[in-house]
Specification:
The protein is globular and about 70 Å long. The longest helix is centred in the middle third of the chain and has 16 residues. The strands form three sheets. An eight-stranded mixed β-sheet has the order 3-4-2-1-5-6-9-10, with helices on both faces. A six-stranded parallel β-sheet has the order 13-12-11-14-15-16, with helices on both faces. The chain starts with a strand and ends with a helix. Strand 7 and strand 8 form a beta hairpin. By secondary structure, the chain is an alpha/beta fold. The chain contains 16 helices and 16 strands. Helix content is 36%, strand content 16%. Helix 3 packs across helix 4 and helix 11 packs across helix 14. It has two domains: 275 residues, Rossmann fold (3-Layer(aba) Sandwich); 142 residues, Glycogen Phosphorylase B (Rossmann fold).
């Protein structure tokens, strides 16, 4: 089969969960004998605005095709100029591209940078189109549907969209971030320092999403943008939801075509489950997210503060320096994936208390793969894979509910959950996921 993927690009220039999923899937598909090409949005030229394509040297056997003059990439910074993102593109250019590549399947991983003409040309050519929902960008230009540290209360009306998006990148800045110069310099010390400072500011308490006052008068602009993405989604042959949470959220906004819910994994996941020993003297709680309100970090602190007033028989391990330390905290630096096994072997329970809609949550699967019980909110998509008695799902999570669950934890209960993981928890492999994608996603 000749498969084309559309994503933001190759590592190390592009990183994150979507890129990892895309590259692992491509590698598995090539191992099956498929021909695979990655099409990605590249540079934007100010004076030669025609959409063109540049084929680069294959990357480890993967075809590489850069779209020159795609739409700009807003990342999760927001969109201010709606019309800029409604440019439908040159359908004839994409027709010629597909005539050259002749794909059987096009698998789209994001709408960022993507012209509507790309999808229209593929439909006209009779090419099968799949789309994986890695985030909520077609619904929310800020990607997460979060405002003021909680799920946006005006997500249906878009009344607050102008305020949330007010800090969006300028057109010139987006052009710079898509340039070959930035690609070459991205990992320099100076650029890394600027990026790190920017992300720390974005994740500071209370600033997950800008709280600038909205402009209800512009709500229609953002509804127009959402409708544009709805039109693109309706042309997709099969939507791949990575969890029931994602399917539910998309279903609240869009009447969509055929879909399949297929939980995801990545190539580094393997089965390390084993029976663990626990002690009531000190329960080791692990949190692998960042200092984000939406990820539930401050909700977790509120719960643990209550618990600390009752007993001191626990510790919280985190991997960043929080704005304010607590006596029960062990603060570690950022970890490399190669260290994850040791980290999870030193953990009694993983807590993932997300307030926002977590489309999946790799850390939950990673914890289970090492036999670590999990406590998660019902907003975490990875709840779909949790075996009976292998963890605890908290509906409508708040700090009091989380406190009661943590207060009730004992070595005996953790041992029972650990045994349930070892005996009943399946650990999804890449081969199994690819097989399901072939059977359930790449078919009508």
């Amino acid at each position: 089969m000749n498969i084309v993927h559309y994503s933001l690009g190759f590592p190390p220039f592009r990183t994150g969960g979507m890129t990892k999923f895309c590259m692992d899937l491509i590698e598995a598909q090539m191992h099956e004998g498929n021909t695979v090409t990655l099409i990605w949005p590249g540079r934007i030229q100010l004076f030669r605005k025609k959409t063109r394509f540049k084929f680069h040297k294959p990357v480890e056997g993967i075809g590489s095709c850069e779209i020159i003059n795609p739409l700009p990439i807003p990342y999760d910074e927001g969109i201010t100029d709606i019309d800029l993102f409604l440019d439908e593109g040159d359908k004839s250019a994409y027709r010629k591209l597909f005539e050259k590549i002749k794909p059987d399947v096009i698998h789209i991983h994001t709408f960022m940078g993507l012209h509507k003409a790309f999808i229209e040309a593929a439909k006209e050519k009779g090419i099968f189109l799949a789309f994986t929902t890695h985030d909520f960008f077609p619904v929310c230009p800020r990607v997460t549907l979060v405002r003021d540290g909680r799920v946006c209360v005006s997500r249906y009306s878009c009344d607050d969209c102008a305020g949330c998006n007010s800090g969006g990148l300028s057109y010139k800045k987006m052009i710079a971030l898509q340039s070959p110069v930035y690609q070459a310099l991205k990992d320099s010390k100076a650029i890394k320092k600027l990026r790190s400072s920017h992300r720390r500011k974005a994740l500071a308490e209370g600033s997950d999403i800008s709280v600038t006052a909205g402009n209800p008068g512009r709500a229609g602009d953002y509804i127009r943008l959402r409708n544009h993405y709805h039109q693109m989604l309706k042309m997709i042959d099969k939507i791949h939801y990575n969890s029931s949470v994602t399917a539910k959220v998309y279903g609240e906004f869009f009447d969509l075509p055929d879909y399949a819910v297929v939980p995801i994994t990545h190539a580094a996941i393997s089965d390390h489950k084993e029976i663990k020993k626990y002690s009531d003297d000190r329960i080791r709680i692990r949190y692998l997210g960042g200092p984000s309100t939406a990820k539930g970090f401050y909700l977790l602190l509120d719960a643990l503060d209550l618990l600390w007033n009752r007993k001191h028989s626990f510790q919280l391990d985190i991997h960043f320096m929080p704005p304010e330390e607590r006596p029960y905290m062990n603060c570690h630096g950022r970890y490399d994936y190669s260290e994850l096994g040791d980290i999870l072997n030193d953990s009694d329970v993983l807590v993932c208390p997300s307030i926002w809609f977590e489309t999946f949550g790799y850390t939950v699967l990673e914890a289970l793969s090492y036999g670590v019980p999990v406590i998660i909110s019902d907003n975490v998509g990875a709840k779909d894979i949790l075996a009976k008695d292998a963890g605890i799902i908290i509906d409508d999570i708040d700090s009091n509910k989380l406190f009661r669950v943590l207060d009730d934890l004992t070595a005996e209960k953790l041992s029972a959950m650990n045994r349930a993981i070892v005996e009943k928890q399946s650990i999804n492999t890449m081969d199994e996921m690819v097989s399901r994608i072939n059977k359930e996603v790449y078919t009508v």
